[in-house]
Give the backbone structure.
Amino acid sequence: MAMAVRLFDLTEPQSSRLEGLEAVPRRRDIRRARRRYACVGVLSLAIPFFGALVVLGVAH
């Protein structure tokens, strides 16, 4: 059974490999993202619905 081996460059300083923590998103940004995804969700349901109504109206 083969084992994976990971090579580390020990000549590089440790601090450059470590990534800092990301800031917590602000409430305003969270609200804006929720509103954007809600609009995308409503449009993704409404557009095909109204398209089907148009097709049924034309076919009728």
